[in-house]
Specification:
The structure is a single chain. This protein has 2 domains: 182 residues, 3-Layer(aba) Sandwich (Rossmann fold), CATH 3.40.50; 164 residues, Rossmann fold (3-Layer(aba) Sandwich). Helix 1 packs across helix 9 and helix 7 runs parallel beside helix 13. 46% of the residues are buried. Helices cover 43% and strands 16% of the residues. By secondary structure, it is an alpha/beta fold. It is globular and about 65 Å long.
Length: 362
């Protein structure tokens, strides 16, 4: 039996749990059976726990029972949401894999890409990369930055593109549940874009609701990835008679996405699962890491970049809704490309398995 310690973001965003769901099932495929995956929060900023990240208490415990350690996936580098103690990291014994983590620049008030004020320090990254047995970053923007620090980093993409192959693991929804069309939102206050764009987000969503209804979408709901989005989502009950839906159960969350009529998405981890499930999507991007990953996946024509489009964004949003979104038919030319990416990800995990096997027989 194999035991893996997984150090990952466990904060508000259910998208992190979607990444974990995909990675866990890929691990089962890699090992050909169930493996024990013991989770630790990457940081104790959002959790009332003394054990988080790669710190003395965590590493001591991991050394006693784990055969391997996976850090990720998530935006752990972008906002420095991983606690690392250099002495503890040096004492870590099992093999370490950095899997599908990202960092990226954000838009400043002038519309130029700039570093976040809380981005992980390069010295911290260098320490982490030096110890890692494998490092596969989620997107090219992250990969290029890490490769300049340590050339061992490779491009690894996001495991959520494989969720369609795990759709049979999802539960049935309640008998009276009518999913309809989902608009996956992010509260504008949490979007790092110039205020002139941020202040228009509510209008853009109301425009999307009106166009969806004009096209015959009868049931429309605001999907919240994060409980912090509920206050914003509730406003559409009064402006457009649209309710919101939120769940912190990743199985229910993915089941909703897989059964949606269409998904209009400001959320990367609503977009990628929906595409993987074959659900029509209208995808909106507003930062470097999502743009980079979309481009890596061949989706250059499959998303709308809010800041780059500027004053043309509204017309592009209406056109994409009227077109029916990014459909399974439009995605067909990329299926083989995504399959190759999925196999590459499984090969990275197989490489990690071999490192674990060597560690077990030391």
């Amino acid at each position: 039996m194999y035991t893996i310690a997984n150090i990952r973001p466990q904060g508000y965003n259910i998208g992190n749990h979607a990444i974990h769901f995909a990675m866990r099932h890929m691990l089962y495929e890699t090992f050909g059976r169930l493996v024990s995956v013991i989770e630790y929060p990457a940081t104790n900023r959002h959790e009332s726990t003394a054990k988080a990240g790669l710190t003395p208490a965590t590493v001591h415990e991991i050394n006693r029972f784990a055969d391997g350690v996976i850090v990720g996936g998530g935006n752990l580098y972008e906002n420095d949401e991983i606690d690392i103690d250099a002495r503890a990291l040096k004492a870590l014994q099992p093999p370490l894999m950095l899997f599908s983590n990202s960092r990226g620049r954000i838009y400043d008030r002038h519309g130029a890409l700039t570093e976040r004020s809380d981005v992980i320090d390069d010295g911290k990254l260098a320490t982490l990369l030096e110890r890692a047995d494998l490092s596969v970053s989620r997107d090219s923007a992250t990969h290029q930055h890490l490769k300049n620090i340590n050339p061992k980093d490779r491009l690894g993409w996001c495991p959520t593109i494989n969720l369609g192959r795990f759709a049979d693991r999802l539960p049935a929804l309640p008998d009276r549940e009518e999913v309809g069309t989902l608009i996956s939102v992010r509260s504008p206050a949490l979007m790092n874009i110039p205020y002139r764009f941020q202040s228009r987000v509510q209008h853009h969503i109301e425009l999307a609701i009106d166009k969806l209804r004009a096209r015959g979408h009868r049931r429309i709901r605001i999907l919240c990835n994060d409980s912090r989005d509920l206050d914003f989502a509730t406003s559409f009950r009064y402006t457009r008679r649209v309710d919101s839906v939120y769940t912190n159960d990743v199985y229910q969350y993915l089941a909703l996405l897989s059964r949606a009529e269409m998904v209009v998405s400001y959320r990367l981890h609503a977009t990628l699962p929906a595409i993987s499930f074959g659900v029509p999507t209208v995808n909106i991007s507003y930062d470097e890491r999502s743009q980079s990953l979309f481009d890596d996946l061949g989706l250059q024509a499959g998303y709308l970049e809010q800041v780059r489009l500027g004053d043309q964004f509204e017309a592009a949003l209406v056109e994409e809704i009227e077109r029916g979104g990014y459909t399974a038919e439009r995605h067909q030319p990329l299926v083989s490309h995504w399959n190759r990416i999925g196999e590459a990800q499984l090969s990275f995990l197989a490489e990690f398995r071999k490192a674990m096997e060597r560690y077990q027989v030391r």
